[in-house]
């Protein structure tokens, strides 16, 4: 366990030293959302209808951007090798890395989302749903994305490849989360959607670390 | 029984045995595919009655449905072969998995294109965000992902393993994706005319469909075997039996 | 720690190891026994499989045939105990450039720092080790401001503290200056002298160690007719 | 038989375009899938036969070279 804790601490320290790594995706999040009123229609009535979906698509893209770096440096500088040498469970380490990723990406996205909600004329009733869906949904994005990051860590220019692998897997999260926000906006219950997101989170937290651990070992063969 | 299974397993793991046995299978597979295709299409195109709602455009069913079914089961087979490779490190399984990917993706593409074409006379537009077509599209993306990943990783062993892991992750996700897409579809589209859902199909329509489904699986086996044999030859090129084969 | 290791604390056996990479056999019928007081140097031309063998012995790679035993049991079955008893220093240093030497060392040593272990490593020992590898005064400077040799010393500082009986070192002399080389030689001598064991890949000529055994993988391959 | 003439069969009751387009595209994809592995096999056999011939030439060349010195 000690190495996991040390790794979580070290990665948070690294994030604090290089704020660009997590700030840039946040700015990207903001910019993507700003494109829609400019490109489609700034009419608040129209915007409020698509707000939930647009914010979620932007969050998804911002997450993908930040995922590429998750394991790359650890593979290149030998940290991954030291993990394996330590004999500690790669499953727990993969879970720890996904947690760090969520703290540096999903959490700030969630906290920033009300600002985008205002920009996109999100109905007042939908704000809690937006926060809740992002709070439950973005950890799933981090967990699933970590598998892709582990698979492509050894590949040169793996960023685009990572998006290709992971985007189809993100669809269920996108569907339920965006629909939760939309339903909240028109005054309907969204418990079912959040419940489904919660179930996906539980499933992803149990299963994806296995895949990540197996994928991490690929980067060590030779 | 158990011993027989163990022996079969060891044989399946032997590339040479695979190559030799499939040499004998290929003529049969070709014959079955050609005959099945001919019978199925003649019955389907000439003898099956036209659909009372869709008219003759429903005859696309004889390629659309078999291709769609196959594309889904091919992904499952690819994942299972990948799992066999991951667990028992059987190289044959990795070669089979790699051979399935492009063939499965081809059938997925066929299902998508024929579905879109079928949509034109049925719904009046080339593309409708119908639940089945949408999940087919996502399945195609999953195939693309596996193939792109396999191509991008230089080390052969690592690329096999990465493909296997991704296809297993995809396999777990497919039911979730299908369910969520169907749920999303009921929200956004009031139940419209479904392409292939019939309360009961006339036997004259159903029999050719069943023939085409079986034929498609046989043909798929043939295509995968052809590709796997090439993998076997390439990897065993320095062994004496391939050299003997080249000499003859 | 000046006390020496228990006499049966190192017992690594390889039996008829076989390994191939990309359809090429690197070695076969390879037998090895590493026990207390041994120094094993893996030699051979580039591509002979030195690093591959080292990584197999370190337990980092399972892609082999044959047996690897640690204290009589399959190495991968007792891997977590084995990992605690051996130190692996890779060809890559696992140093984060944005972090300082002490922060890096703290992470590298974390498996041995938890308090429930015997002989847990203390924070003071980390500072002492950095002092030994001539990084005193640089402890809190980000590593990106240090030279390549200094960065390597951060990783090597582990040798001064880690209480493991077996060391597995991949090309540790790379990028070291004369002082560094001498210090490293002393550490290896000290480890062997206190009844520990070292397995090393290096082109560096190791002297003054009577228990040195060289295993030339190139010669072995020739003998087996693999070339 | 559902159709009375070949022309009627081709027309498919005004849906001929869609039906035959579907079958045509399928045929193209199927043919590509059959041809690709066959071409790959042919290329492999050709390359390997060439390689073996080259190796044999080199071997005999070496022997002659050895006997002449």
What can you tell me about this protein's structure?
The complex is a heterotetramer of chains A (222), B (248), C (227) and D (69). Chain A is built from nine helices and no strands. With 222 residues, chain A is mainly alpha-helical. Chain A has one domain. In chain A, helix 3 runs antiparallel to helix 6, helix 6 packs across helix 9 and helix 8 runs antiparallel to helix 9. The two termini of chain A are 27 Å apart. The longest helix of chain B is centred in the N-terminal third of the chain and has 33 residues. In chain C, a hairpin with a 2-residue loop joins strand 4 and strand 5. In chain C, helix 3 crosses helix 4 and helix 3 crosses helix 5. Chain C has 227 residues and is an alpha/beta fold. The longest helix of chain C is centred in the last third of the chain and has 16 residues. By secondary structure, chain D is mainly α. Chain D has a domain of 45 residues. Chain D is built from two helices and no strands. The longest helix of chain D has 53 residues. Chain D starts with 5 loop residues before the first helix and ends with a helix. Chains in contact: A-B, A-C, B-C, B-D. The interface between B and C is small, with 4 and 3 residues.
What's the helix and strand layout?
The complex is a heterotetramer of chains A (222), B (248), C (227) and D (69).
Chain A: H1 2-17, H2 20-39, H3 44-67, H4 69-77, H5 79-86, H6 90-119, H7 127-152, H8 158-185, H9 191-218
Helix pairs in contact in A: 1-6, 2-3, 2-6, 3-6, 3-7, 3-8, 4-7, 6-7, 6-9, 7-8, 7-9, 8-9
Chain B: H1 2-12, H2 15-47, H3 61-88, H4 91-123, H5 131-152, H6 156-188, H7 203-235, H8 240-247
Helix pairs in contact in B: 2-7, 3-4, 3-6, 3-7, 4-5, 4-6, 4-7, 5-6
Chain C: E1 11-21, E2 24-35, E3 39-43, H1 50-58, E4 65-70, E5 73-74, H2 79-85, E6 86-89, H3 101-109, H4 123-132, H5 148-161, E7 166-170, H6 178-193, E8 197-201, E9 212-216, H7 217-223
Parallel strand pairs in C: 3-8, 3-9, 6-7, 7-8
Antiparallel strand pairs in C: 1-2, 1-4, 4-5
Helix pairs in contact in C: 3-4, 3-5, 4-5
